[in-house]
């Protein structure tokens, strides 16, 4: 809604107001450069980084809601596919995810997660 997001080499994401042309917020969470951004449904933003992670941000709260960890390859592109799905490419592969459908377990597996449960944060 009248905003622009830009990724930075230092791992930050800046959110800009198109009306005022001023920065509204700076989001921190990636360890390396942010290479890809995609606007998602329900006021969310996905960011992909050279650190091999994809983060899902809530734009109302300006906070990270989830982190998707891949195989470590830099994330090079992201695209919103609709129906809660996110597509993207890393250096050596491509894929599609439901960004808010799984969470890591301590066993190295994943478990179902419902985005309506606010306790899941980065």
Report on the structure:
Pfam families: WD40. The chain has a domain at about 30-110. The chain is about 0% helix and about 55% strand. It contains no helices and 12 strands. It has strands at about 5, 15, 25, 35-40, 45-50, 55-60, 65-70, 75-80, 85-90, 95, 100-105, 110. The radius of gyration is 14 Å and the shape is globular.
Offer a concise description of the structure.
With 122 residues, the protein is an all-beta fold.
Name the descriptors.
0% helix, 4-stranded antiparallel β-sheet, globular, 54% strand, mainly beta, 12 strands, 3-stranded antiparallel β-sheet, 122 residues, single chain
Sheet with the most strands? 4 strands, antiparallel
Order of helices and strands: EEEEEEEEEEEE
Number of strands: 12
Cα radius of gyration in angstroms: 14 Å
Tell me the structural class.
mainly beta
CA-CA gap between termini = 24 Å
Shape: globular
Mean of residue pLDDT values: 80
Strand order of the largest sheet: 4-5-6-7
Number of helices: 0
- Proportion of helical residues: under 10%
Q: Any low-confidence stretches, pLDDT <50, length ≥5?
A: 100-104, 108-122
WD repeats: 1-26, 27-67
Biased composition (Low complexity): 87-96
Region (Disordered): 87-122
InterPro entries: WD40/YVTN_repeat-like_dom_sf (IPR015943), WD40_repeat_dom_sf (IPR036322), WD40_rpt (IPR001680)
């Amino acid at each position: 809604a009248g905003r622009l997001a830009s990724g930075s080499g230092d791992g930050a994401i800046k959110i800009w107001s198109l009306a005022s042309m001023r920065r509204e917020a700076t989001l921190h969470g990636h360890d390396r450069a942010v290479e890809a951004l995609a606007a998602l449904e329900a006021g969310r933003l996905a960011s992909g980084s050279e650190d091999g992670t994809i983060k899902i941000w809530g734009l109302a709260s300006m906070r990270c809601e989830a982190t998707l960890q891949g195989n470590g390859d830099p994330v090079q592109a992201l695209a919103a596919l609709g129906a809660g799905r996110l597509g993207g490419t890393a250096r050596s592969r491509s894929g599609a995810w439901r960004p808010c459908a799984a969470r890591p377990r301590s066993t190295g597996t994943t478990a179902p997660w419902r985005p309506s449960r606010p306790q899941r944060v980065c």
